[in-house]
Structures are given as C-alpha cells and as structure tokens.
Design goal:
Blueprint lengths: L1 H7 L2 H12 L2 E2 H5 L6 H13 L3 E6 L2 E6 L1 H12 L6
C-alpha cells in the first residue's frame, strides 16, 4: 500500500489520473498536457503502473494507458474501515 500512497502523493501523477479518468491516452498525449519532459512523464507513468493505478496496453508502436479503478476500490474499502460509527 506504500507504493500506492507514494504514487498519489504527487500532483503530476494525480493530474495524469484525472486525464485517464476521461479516456485512455498514449504517453505522448499525456505529455502534451504537462510542461515537463517526456522522460519525466514516463517516470510518473512507471510509478503509477507499479502502484497498479494504470494499465499499459501496447498497440503497434504506441502504448496506451488506462486507469485501473480496482486498486482505488480496494484502497477506499480499506480506508472506510476507519470511518467512525456514530
């Protein structure tokens, strides 16, 4: 779970997730939305993949990324167990 929180702790990675919430995108399409280098975007995508938050699918010469909501569901389920009962 530490890698999950590390991945969510960065504003750029949260921004990438917001983009992928709308539609699947290639790394190049994602990079166009940020004012940082493509290698930096690749690093952010790699951390998101390690955390299980995104899935990469190779289509020809491009890799398309999509959001993996299963991990978010599991995290929210875990967090909800701490909600106080009134």
């Amino acid at each position: 779970m530490n890698i999950l929180f590390k991945a969510l702790n960065d504003e750029t990675r949260r921004g990438i997730l917001e983009l992928l919430k709308k539609r699947d995108m290639s790394a190049g399409e994602i990079a166009e939305q940020f004012n940082i280098s493509k290698p930096s975007i690749s690093h952010h995508l790699d951390l998101l993949k390690q955390a299980g938050l995104v899935v990469a699918n190779k289509e020809g010469q491009f890799i398309h990324y999509s959001i993996n909501t299963t991990v978010m569901d599991e995290m929210l389920k875990w967090m909800m167990q701490f909600k106080s009962k009134k």
